[in-house]
Structure formats: structure tokens, C-alpha cells
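The protein record quoted in full:
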Amino acid sequence: MYLKVGKSTLLRCLVKHYVRHTVSEIRGPITIVTGKTRRVTFVEVNNEINSMIDMSKIADLVLLMVDASYGFEMETFEFLNMCQVHGMPRIIGVLSHLD
């Protein structure tokens, strides 16, 4: 399993987009208030299948990062299958390292 997919970089960019402030290090969930009654919480999850499944159970939306230079791994297909079987949240695929 490959660790340098770009999860932290994407998280930093999303935070900067919402609050115009940079985050140097990510330690735990980041919650941003986007309106009077809305907030967005970003949680970075490691590449273990159990961690991904646990987090997807409470998420409204999953951004699934895939390193394009390595392609889909077996764990990715397992995760997508589990989500489909259990009717878990919407998933948006994000490809990184396309250059």
C-alpha cells in the first residue's frame, strides 16, 4: 500500500480555499464553519481498509484518493464493494500524480 497519495496536500488546499489560511500540519479532524447553519469537517484517514470503512459509516461524502501512477489496489475495490453493499455515502474519486 502506498502512503504518499496526496491526502494531506488536498486537505491543505481545501482548507485554504474555505478560510484563506494555510495549515502546516494536519493533526486530527479540521472543522470549518461555512455558513450560519453549515460546517464542513475534513478527516484524513490512513490507507487501512478497516479505517476507511469505519470512517465511511459516519461520513456524508467520501473523497477517495487514488495514486494514478499505481492505479487501483485490491483494498480500493474491497472498500468500494463494501460501500455499495451497505449503502454507504456518496463517493467522489480523486486521481493524483497524473504527471
